[in-house]
Amino acid sequence: MLTARAKRKENIAEYILYIWQLEDLFRALQFSPEAIYAQLVKPLQIGEDEKQDVFFWYMDLVNLLRTEGKEQHGHIDHTLHLIRDLDDLHRDLLRLPAGEEYRKVFAPLAAELPVLKARLEKRDMSDIEFCMRALYAVMLYRIKGDETHKAYENDVMTLISPVIAQLARIHREIEKGEFDLYKGEKQTT
Q1: Where among 34, 67, 100 does a domain terminate?
Q2: What is the pTM of this model?
Q3: In the chain, is it the N or the C terminus that has fewer CB atoms within a 10 Å radius of its CB?
Q4: Are residues 141 and 108 in the same domain?
Q5: H or E element: which one contains 23?
Q6: Cβ neighbour number for residue 99 with a 10 Å cutoff
Q7: Could you tell me if residue 72 is inside a domain?
Q8: Per-residue model confidence as pLDDT tens digits over 156-182
Q9: Across the strands, what pairs with 157?
Q10: pLDDT digits (tens, 9 = 90+) for 96-124
């Protein structure tokens, strides 16, 4: 919860990846409240009241997964809505003058994106959802120590990571009122 709050405020992409990682941890722990507390909450170096808050927040996420029927796989709707918002921003930046810098970062990926999507049979997925899922896959490969996907990992980190980092930065600046999407100028506060 504390980490999620900080990530949500500073980097929307990291927040989404963090929530996805929690979802998979909850599944690995079979949604057991005892296991979630023992493995994820108890080791935290925070006070008991904060631990209780974190535990209740984790259980809220578990309940969302169950309510949405995503006990086996999938991601909570909340993160998918955030991805749609990011995809809307992405499309705006591709067409508006404010997106000039973003388009330069996106250009190398734009040429490769159809090939990457086709390779993974994700042609119908939005660009940003595809990118987020690719980043998450690389994160899982690294956690597992899986070296068999090095070429894919290189593509993701070289082509996708800079785009998502730039998109997350612009998103943060818009939320803070520091970037006007329709004027393309940073606002001074």
Answers
A1: 67
A2: 0.88
A3: C
A4: yes
A5: helix 12-28
A6: 21
A7: no
A8: 889 999 999 999 999 999 999 999 988
A9: none
A10: 999 999 999 999 999 999 888 887 777 78
- Distance, CA of 111 to CA of 152 (rounded, Å): 16
18: closest CA among 32, 28, 3, 33? 3
- Between CA 177 and CA 184, with CA 179 as vertex, the angle to 5 degrees is 150
Closest CA to 18 of 60, 61, 63: 61
- Please determine, for residue 139, whether its predicted confidence score (pLDDT) is greater than 60: yes
100/17 same-domain check = no
| 5/182 Cα distance (integer angstroms) | 28
In a domain, 184, yes or no: no
How many Cβ atoms from other residues are within 10 Å of residue 85's Cβ?
A: 13
Which range of residues forms the domain containing residue 46? Answer: 2-67
Both 22 and 54 in a single domain?
A: yes
Q: How far apart are CA 105 and CA 118, in angstroms?
A: 22
Report how many domains make up the chain: 2
Identify the domain boundary among 32, 67, 102. 67
Other CB atoms closer than 10 Å to residue 52's CB: what's the count? Answer: 12
**pLDDT band, residue 155 (cuts 50/70/90):** confident
What residue type is assigned to position 11 of the chain? N
Residues 103 and 169 in one domain: yes
